[in-house]
Design a protein that fits this description.
It is a single chain. Strand 6 and strand 7 (279-280) form a beta hairpin. The protein has 425 residues and is mainly α. The chain has a 3-stranded antiparallel sheet with strand order 1-5-2. The chain has a two-stranded antiparallel ribbon with strand order 3-4. The N and C termini lie far apart (106 Å). It has 3 domains: 17-144, Arc Repressor Mutant, subunit A (Orthogonal Bundle); 160-234; 247-269 and 279-424, no CATH class. It has helices spanning 17-27, 36-45, 54-66, 84-91, 95-107, 140-144, 146-182, 189-206, 214-231, 283-292, 318-324, 327-330, 338-343, 345-352, 356-366, 368-383, 390-403, 408-424; strands at 79-80, 112-113, 122-125, 131-135, 137-138, 273-274, 279-280.
Length: 425
């Protein structure tokens, strides 16, 4: 006869490295620092952070309320010895469902469990009758992680509040923009049509507002408010305290370069655009913009046209770029690194009406970082109405970069000086 194999029943719950870590963490809890009421309030708020669902929160709340209030005092020990059958009766779920939920709570680090050999839960008491240990559901891990979990809940609530505020402001800005289109103003039909198309474009990019990220909603709100200002012919927000825009900086051009690519107002801007790519329509003006669109250097050097090469550019700090280009903040761009600025380049091109071909060509000839600065400078000048055709302006910068005659650093510092003079006046 062969040897009889004994199938021994496994003793206790399956243990993983993470569960073992939570058990050790629970042993370091300082009993008496958190009350049962605080834990009850926290447990009810945990579903908002996505850590557990509502049913698991209900079970965890039943466990917290089962423990005596003095179990969370310094001499207490918050361990629950109720069976799964009793817990299932109290929360109205099946025994199997309760067992699975307890395992998920264990994996999430909200409870720890110590099972006996026969899966019974019981306390171990000392001579004075105080519980010193036992096999059951241990809630001490909640005391250890209370500060962490409470911070997660606070952060989730703050993010939800900010998201709701951004959504309400966007919907209000869109409604105001629609109403401003119907308000009589001293604007030509062409200008109103252009702005109406841009408002529709922003609304299409956002799509369903309730599902859009808060960052996109804030950027769209800033754009819509800017469109309303243009419709109402209001001055730029940074120029509210100035008497006239022409008196902004009368003496700046001696110390910096002052560039205006067009003397035409916004009403005539579409006459100078090319319909296919939303850039220059007039080839004569396009050639002129290609020559004179960007930063005349004092000692201008001629490079070989047949063999264009990318010359090293003087690097500027990101903080100087942000200080010189306030339009970035107006449009909702707050890059913390050069990578953030580069990733925002496609959206900046959309806002300015720059074609994809112009952006790619700028990246190929300038590099991603320099191209991002060039697009940001274009957006700033477009916001100031110094440039009426941003796509043609960026192509002009690209041509200069190909010829080795582009000086972005001078442009950035010039715009920074201009902003300083405007604020001072």
């Amino acid at each position: 006869m062969g040897e009889t194999q004994m199938n021994l029943r496994p003793s206790g719950r399956r243990i993983t490295p993470q569960r073992a870590h939570f058990r050790r963490l629970a042993e370091s809890a300082e009993i008496g620092t958190v009350t049962r009421a605080q834990l009850a309030i926290l447990v009810q708020s945990l579903p908002c952070v996505g850590l557990i669902n509502g049913t698991e929160s209900h079970l965890l709340l039943a466990l917290v309320n089962t423990a005596q209030a003095d179990a969370f005092d310094k001499s207490g020990r918050p361990i629950i010895f109720k069976s799964n059958q009793q817990l299932a009766f109290e929360i109205g779920r099946s025994v199997g469902r309760v067992s699975r939920m307890l395992s998920r709570l264990f994996d999430a680090g909200l409870v720890t469990m110590q099972d006996s050999g026969n899966y019974k839960r019981y306390p171990i008491r000392n001579a004075q009758g105080e519980i010193t240990g036992g096999c059951g559901i241990d809630l001490r891990i909640l005391i250890v992680r209370y500060a962490e979990l409470d911070e997660m809940v606070r952060r989730a609530r703050a993010e939800k509040k900010a998201a709701d505020a951004a959504l309400r402001r966007y919907r209000g800005a869109l409604r105001n923009a629609r109403q401003a289109l119907a308000t009589p103003a001293e604007q030509s039909r062409r200008v109103v049509g252009v702005i109406e198309g841009r408002i529709d474009r922003v609304a299409d990019l956002i799509g369903i507002a309730g599902k859009a990220p808060s960052r996109n909603l804030r950027r769209a709100t800033a754009l819509l408010e800017w469109f309303v200002d243009r419709l109402m012919q209001l001055p730029r927000r940074s120029e509210e305290g100035q008497k006239t825009q022409n008196m902004t900086c009368p003496h700046v051009e001696n110390g910096m370069h002052k560039q205006t690519t067009t003397p035409y107002p916004l009403a005539n801007s579409n006459d100078e655009r090319r319909s296919a790519a939303a850039e220059q329509l007039n080839p004569v003006r396009a050639g002129s913009a290609s020559k004179w669109a960007f930063e005349e250097s004092l000692g201008r050097r001629r490079s070989e046209i047949n063999q264009p090469q990318r010359l090293p550019q003087t690097m500027v700090a990101l903080r100087d770029v942000l200080r010189a280009l306030p339009a970035l903040k107006t449009y909702g761009f707050t890059p913390a690194t050069w990578g953030d600025l580069a990733r925002a380049m496609p959206l900046m091109c959309r806002f300015a009406g720059i074609s994809e071909d112009a952006r790619r060509r700028a990246i190929d000839l300038m590099g991603e970082q320099q191209a991002a600065v060039a697009v940001a400078v274009t957006l700033e000048k477009y916001d100031r109405q110094d440039v009426k055709s941003p796509g043609g302006y960026l192509r002009a910068l690209t041509d200069r970069a190909a010829a080795g005659e582009l000086h972005l650093a001078r442009s950035v510092f010039g715009l920074a000086a201009r902003n300083s003079m405007e604020i001072r006046h």
